[in-house]
Predict the 3D structure of the following.
Amino acid sequence: MEVIKTVKDMQRRADKLRLAGHMVSLVPTMGFLHEGHLELMRVAKKNSDKLIISIFVNPMQFSPTDDYDEYPRDTEGDLKKSREVGVDIVFMPSIEEMYPENYQTNVHVEKVTRHLCGISRHGHFDGVSTVVCKLFNATKPHLAFFGQKDYQQLTVISRMIIDLNMDIKIVGVRTVREPDGLAMSSRNSYLNAEERESALCLKKSLDLAGQMYEKGERSPAAIKEAVEALIKRHPFTEIDYFSLCDPVTLEDVQTLGHENLLALAVRIGKTRLIDNCLLRKT
Ligand code: PAF
């Protein structure tokens, strides 16, 4: 497994891979790899013959009040896990390499960034789309893999790909959960034992909403009321948002149709967690 630290070296290596006829995939990450990332890598490996992952904690997608400094990091562990999965190249640039002096460019996706996480995390998706665009330019992949847990991120990147005519196929990969249902996230490591218990309210909310939808409930307000009551029964919780929306535009819907996205963000103590599911007629 190669570790590459500069954009120039990465671009040269990517050119060689493409010239040699390889199908190249990228899994962008911020490190502290967990089973969710490993699943992305496994799926990517099955669908390509050279797998690049990037490890870069991107300061541009954190606001000053976010957890950039505390964000968990474990380079040694990440390299070991990557080797075990069979990653070919780890691209691990420094901040100076990604944002050199006098850096002043921003990729901004308009409408789909206005909802859900975009409401409380100003500028977050500009940071994401900008860094992902730069990672694509550095690694030149044919395919890139993103987790469906970050549904809005996947939507924003897919929009950017279409709008900027990027010749990359974006693949969404299922959310990987702990045995009790909690979606895997690097931020789960912030939770103490009691908070960890309360964090189950996210998956329970999705299940409750799913059951109500299956029984024929089509009122977002009724589902919202039931979910809010459920979450309030769990200590340390504060809802950031709960949305039943169109899975493409991410705009709230007045009545549930054949396919709807349920997305929510809940603070558990100081940790903000997100989860989502599709409510669809089978
Ligand atoms: O999902 C993440 O870990 C990050 O947002 C990403 C896509 C690696 C960009 O920094």
Q: What stands out?
A: The beta strands are 2-4, 24-29, 50-55, 89-91, 143-147, 169-173, 237-245, 259-268, 271-280. The chain has two domains: 2-173, 187-280. Residues 28-30, 58, 61, 128, 131-132, 150, 153 surround pantoate (CB under 6 Å).
